[in-house]
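Deliverable D4.2, example record:
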Amino acid sequence: MLLSVAAIYSFSACSKDENEEKNDEEEHSRTVIFYIAADNSLSNNAKYDLKEIYQGMQNLVIGEDDKVVVYVDDTYSTSLLYLDKKLAADGTGDFELIHEYSEEINSCDSEVLKEVLSLVKSKYKSDSYGLVLWSHGTGWMPSLCEKDGPLPAKRRTFGLDNSEVRPGRQMRVSSLAKAVEETGGVDFIFFDACFMQCIEVAYQLRNATRYVIGSPCELPGEGANYTTMVEAMFSKDNYAEKMVEAYYKEYSDDGDTYGINVSAIKTAELESYSDYMKGLVGKYSEELRNADYDYMLNYFQYEMWQYQVAQPNFFDMQAVMLEVLDDNDYKEWRKRTNAVIIKNMETPFWYSSYNNRKNYFDVTECCGVSMFIPMEVYDNYNNNNFNKSILNTEWGEKVWSQYNYK
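Output generated by the structure prediction step:
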């Protein structure tokens, strides 16, 4: 574990509340922390992204106190690396090595994430912190195997670490949120991981960060192009929106191979939004039960692998609301949602390895954030009853506990 390293530094953190008091246009320092959990099939991609991060910092006009710290755990080693403007200017491509770990580390243990954040914040003081969470992902579902216990296949939540066992450990979103909150919060969390931009994850993180940026669908293995993405991360104003634009641009120029859907959520609006959504679920319970979900924009189709994958449907929120709400309530929903989802961009399609084809967006149905809908079909899926699992999330407990889906 990291305790022996973290103990070198006294703990200090820049809180979310303190950051919110600063005007975004003021000059202030930022440290972006990359947490790369790549002890899995993405290990080689991590090496290329390190090169991109370096190139992005090399090309960037940033403040003297702005910096990047990278925790990277791939199939070969685990290291903590540092890069600032001066180091990037030398053109060698080398990060400064802070620490190389000799032991195997489960990077999907939230205590490891917590100690990395504590170490970085105590050693590198900044007015602002951003966190990049880089790995596999499957959204809101509560992982059963962060540390101990059985290992149901394809139940990743955030991350996948194969160092101890296969198919590996995953990190619960509730544990992730707690680790970030207890170390003082960050200004943004960017998920470079599939399926993580769902309303359930964002709501769980509402006290940990000001903005959540990510994709509701499957991402290409290459992920973001950090050569251009880094510049957006260090923007002093509108950085969440600029990160969406930077991710989108990489794949809008890609032509015919891959595609992307990416959005930014403002977490300060989520508490009141959850109250509002609870009211809509109560008012439209019959319409939700009887809706035709077969043709809605769906980022992962439950039936795709004949129910063998422990992952439910991931419907776009807007697609569902268009189907069930009357015109007046939809207009009100759209207005309230615009205050939550402050930026959304999508290419005409995304490519999915699950069905091995292009899947096309209907932009009229697309807000770039997915949501879970309880369904009777989930009741009989072995021990993975998603209708019960959703109630173990804070969003599900608040919004869906009243709902009878049968």
